[in-house]
Every structure is written in structure tokens, then in C-alpha cells.
Amino acid sequence: MGPPIIGISKEIERINDLIKHVADTGLNIVISGETGVGKEVVAQNLYQNSPRLGKPFVKVNCAALPEGLLESELYGYEKGAFTGAEQKKRGKFELANGGVLFLDEIGDMPLLLQSKLLHVLQSGEFAPLGSEKELKTDTWLIAATNHNLELEIKERKFREDLFYRLNIIKIHVPPLRERPEDIPHLIDYYITIYTSKFNNKHMLKPGSGVLQKLAKYHWPGNVRELQNVLKRVLVLGGWDEIIDELFISTPSPESPAAVDPLSLKSMASFGGGLLRRDDIQLDSFSLKEIRRQAVDRIEKEAISYILEKTGWNRSKASKILKISYKTLLYKIQDLNIQSTME
Ligand SMILES: Nc1ncnc2c1ncn2[C@@H]1O[C@H](COP(=O)(O)OP(=O)(O)OP(=O)(O)O)[C@@H](O)[C@H]1O
Ligand SMILES: [Mg+2]
Fold first, then answer.
1. Is the C-beta atom of 7 inside 6 A of ligand 1?
2. Domain 10-174 CATH superfamily
3. Using CA atoms, how far apart are residues 235 and 252, in angstroms rounded to an integer?
């Protein structure tokens, strides 16, 4: 079903430990974390380590359906319960009986349905729409959310009483950027999977320079984004371009690349100390030559500054400097600009 939870960070170790401890308790669980961090993988691993393995694992995405449809999806309905209900339909609560009901995006469940869910949790029973009879349910509820439910409670978007019923065990999966030590392990794992899946024997393992950059990247899409990067590298056959793209397309709020690189203050300082007299050869002294040297020096300083700010991301730097990528490469060579980072 799901992959093992790959990673060596203490956060991932803690999660793997927690899974072993709670998997046979059947206690309700809320898994929180940003998109793509692996909340569903955690749910799958809980199930795989539990005595319910082999029974159904049923997933409902509470954000994907409007209120009415979500209700009938969860609880089912009798024939004739409402116009259009031509057949009896069994709800996910019934289908998940004996197994796991994974409520994804629980933070998006409308308030009315939250009340109904609370009732089910309290009584252990539910009635399909249009039915008088309550059915007993024995499902292990695992919920996931990328919202901050505590905040939603304050804003009255999430019921506090439901929260305490659900959130008996809380598993928070931290974003990838907070555990960069997991990145090489995830890469190894998925390179093995993708090379066999796509029958590609030449997938390049990233070198240490690339790994350093990957560790600095913001990863807004977390592990899912890393998977996509690996697939692109696999298709395009190299890391460099793709790494550059990463830093252009999603500058992070914290990454230096997103800081306005040319504030007026820093711009002004580029002019300082221009005419260092010992640098000027008298026989080649001409205003034109001075201008050339001055321009070179300012350009060198500006380009170095931007390259440093972007972590030597040349594509991003060329965009900021508003010159072509090629021109930038040429200037780096011509002006003998060297990285202090590599
Ligand atoms: N620690 C991990 N080890 C191996 N694979 C992982 C790990 N974390 C995530 N993945 C993989 O990354 C992808 C995204 O994970 P998953 O679907 O569980 O994220 P999610 O938190 O549920 O995201 P969303 O909020 O967008 O639904 C999946 O293919 C999953 O298998
Ligand atoms: Mg998910």
C-alpha cells in the first residue's frame, strides 16, 4: 500500500516510534502538516502496523465534495431518501467497518457535518439518510489536515468538542525544509523506485553541491515536490537546470533570493571606492578606460552580490539582473567572478 516512512531525522524517528506505539490502540488520531509532507503515508503506516490490516482502509476527502454529497458519501442513504436517490447507497462509515476511515482534510468539513460526526463518535452509531435505523460502527478514525485546527477553533470554523474527540493522539509531520537531512534518503529511495519503474538505468545521483542546494530550498510542496523534481531530472537527465528552476519558480519568503536584492542603499554602496588610484595605469589613462574599469568593477560587485544572494542560482540571478542567462555566464567568466560558497 503506502511506502515506509523514509527519513533519519529525529522527527521521522519519533513518528515511526509513535506509530508502533499507537497502531494497536485504535485511538482516534489527527495527523497535521503542510501539503505533501506525508500525512497519508503516516495514516497508511498506522493501518499497516495495526490489527486492522486486511480490513478496509477507506479514504474520504472532506474538501472535495460539497456538504450534501459529503454527507451521503459518509453515511449513505436509503432508496428514495431524497429526489434522485434511486438506489440504496452504502456510506463510507459502513464500508470502513472493522477497518480504518481516513478523513482527509478534516479542517474543511462543514460545521453541520462536524456536529453529525461528533454524534457518531459519541454514540458509535449512525443512520444513513432516510433511515430510521441506527447502524453500529466500528471504525478507526484517522483524520488529516493541513489547517491549524486550534486556530480554526478560535475562528469558530472547527468545533472544539469534535477536536478533542478526534485529537486523542496527535501526529505532526514537519515540513521537509525543517528536516533536510531526510532529503538524501528520500532521493535514494525514490531513485531506486523510479529507475526500475521507468526502466532508466542512468538516473544521476546528485553530487554534494546539488545536495547542499536542495537542503537550502524551501520545498513548499514537500516530499511530493521532491518526487516531481526527481522525475524531471530523470527525464531531462541532469540536475543543474532543474535546481536553477526550483529557485526561480518559488522563491521562499525566508530565502535570500526573495529579499529585494537591490535596495537603494546597497545600490548606492556599489559606487563607493571606485577610483582606486593605484589601479589605474597612466599609459592607458583615458576617460573611456576609466569608464570601462568602473563599469567592470560595479558590474562585478553587483553580479557577485546577486549571485551570493541567490545561492549562485544563475537563472534566478540573470532574471534579477535583467540580462540573459548566457550573458551572465559570459560575464562571470569575463569578470572572473568566483563563488565564495563552493
Ligand atoms: N517520509 C516519506 N517517505 C517516503 N515517501 C513519502 C514520505 N513522505 C511523503 N512521501 C510520499 O510523498 C507523496 C506525498 O505524500 P502524502 O500524499 O502522504 O502527503 P500529504 O501530507 O497527504 O499531502 P496533501 O496534504 O497534499 O494531501 C506520496 O507519494 C508519499 O508516498
Ligand atoms: Mg493527503
1. yes
2. P-loop containing nucleotide triphosphate hydrolases (3.40.50.300)
3. 26
Which residue ranges make up each domain of the chain? 10-174, 176-250, 259-342
- Is-above-0.85 flag for pTM? no
- Quote the CA–CA distance of 23 and 111 in Å, as a whole number: 29
Residue of 9, 40, 47, 146 to mutate, ligand 1, most atoms within 8 A of C-beta: 40
Mean pLDDT estimate for the chain: 87
- CB of residue 146 inside a 6 A radius of ligand 1: yes
pLDDT tens, position by position, 24-55: 999 999 999 999 999 999 999 999 999 999 99
- Topology (CATH) of 259-342: Arc Repressor Mutant, subunit A (1.10.10)
Q: Look at residues 341, 335, 269, 267 and name the one whose alpha carbon lies nearest to residue 307.
A: 341
Over the stretch 243-287, which tens digit does the pLDDT of each residue have?
A: 888 887 655 554 444 333 343 333 434 444 444 455 555 665 667
Residue 174, ligand 1, Cβ within 6 A: no
Residue 97 to residue 132: CA distance in whole angstroms: 19
- CATH code linked to domain 176-250: 1.10.8.60
- What whole-number distance in Å separates Cα of residue 317 and Cα of residue 303? 8
